[in-house]
Inverse folding.
């Protein structure tokens, strides 16, 4: 099998060794002669997986005391709804920063709950930048941000300072760089971009921030339900959690977030330098706001698209076609993508420029 350079935007590349261990667990988990998929989630063996996954999150992100780690279902898209349910007061107010499709979807879900203030939006330029210099209303119940805009290739390089509770969708850049969890009342992130397979979503929740809305919250949407039951209120998505645990262990074994941040910076520098130097391409995102995870770029001359597509496909590159909302190309460089894969893409772009430039 020849190596594929997998730039998929999500679900996305996972470390080969993780996939191998994961596949073994489907046949014979922990030498039980049983599959991980056919044992109770309350068995000692699975309870240990959950505990290990939670402790790895704490360790890798330096999560302070007073926060709970949950692995739930429903994806980030259900998270959009859980946010107002758990954090917006009855007749309350919430502030949102609209930096892309996902940010906008999050904001939409809050609209039925109270007053939703869009503090700023980059929609005017198809979300190709991160708005700055906005004012966050000090009487809002929370401020919601999306730290990385997967579709448009922008990323918040600094977390805005904020006097009200801060909530972040970090689906596509969690574990890619250091963060200060104490700045946030809640962080949520679907697994399938940087942590594991689709099917589970990580919540990092400041315990003391909950239970203040005066709302009746449906049991499954109430974060307190899951905190009380240590993420085992109902059957958790065992396989996704197991593979996420393996990926976090892989990250720790290799040097943790500090190591991956350096590597992610190297990968992004390598590709963006080529995008800027190459006469046939241009980046679509504002340079200062470029994402280290998803690099978006287009051909200056669209009529060369077939030629470029043939060349990257011949180099065993997969998944760089851009999202339909941006067009062109999107190279997603999540944690498990090796630097060598970025070099292969850069070499193709250089060869393409020699041939057609
Ligand atoms: C992919 C993505 C989502 C949607 O996640 P689902 O798990 O499919 O609901 C939300 N936010 C961001 C930033 C994403 O990248």
């Amino acid at each position: 099998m020849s190596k594929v350079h997998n730039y998929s935007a999500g679900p996305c590349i996972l470390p080969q060794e993780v996939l191998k261990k994961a596949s073994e667990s489907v046949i014979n988990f922990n030498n039980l002669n049983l599959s991980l998929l056919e044992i109770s989630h309350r068995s000692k063996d699975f309870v240990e997986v959950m505990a290990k996954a939670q402790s790895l999150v704490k360790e890798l992100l330096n999560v302070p005391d007073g926060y709970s780690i949950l692995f739930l279902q429903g994806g980030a898209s259900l998270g959009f709804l859980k946010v107002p349910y758990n954090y917006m007061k009855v007749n309350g107010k919430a502030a949102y920063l609209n930096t892309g499709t996902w940010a906008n979807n999050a904001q939409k879900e809050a609209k039925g709950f109270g007053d939703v203030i869009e503090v700023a939006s980059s929609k005017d330029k198809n979300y190709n930048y991160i708005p700055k210099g906005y004012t966050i209303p000090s009487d809002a119940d929370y401020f919601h941000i999306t730290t990385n805009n997967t579709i448009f290739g922008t990323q918040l390089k600094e977390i805005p300072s904020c006097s009200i509770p801060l909530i972040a969708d970090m689906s596509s850049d969690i574990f890619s760089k250091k963060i200060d969890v104490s700045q946030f009342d809640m962080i949520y992130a679907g697994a399938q971009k940087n942590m594991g397979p689709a099917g589970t979503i990580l919540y990092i929740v400041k315990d003391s921030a909950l239970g203040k809305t005066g709302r009746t919250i449906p049991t499954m949407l109430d974060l307190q339900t899951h905190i009380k039951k240590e993420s085992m209120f109902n059957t958790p998505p065992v396989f996704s959690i197991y593979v996420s645990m393996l990926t976090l262990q892989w990250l720790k074994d290799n040097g943790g977030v500090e190591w991956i941040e350096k590597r992610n910076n190297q990968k992004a520098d390598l590709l963006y330098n080529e995008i800027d130097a190459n006469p046939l391409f241009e980046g679509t995102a504002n340079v200062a706001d470029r994402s280290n995870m998803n690099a978006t770029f287009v051909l200056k001359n669209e009529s060369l698209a077939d030629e470029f597509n043939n060349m990257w496909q011949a180099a065993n590159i997969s998944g760089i076609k851009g999202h339909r909302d941006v067009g062109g190309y999107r190279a997603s460089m999540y944690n498990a993508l090796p630097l060598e894969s970025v070099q292969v893409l850069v070499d193709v772009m250089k060869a393409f420029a020699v041939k057609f430039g």
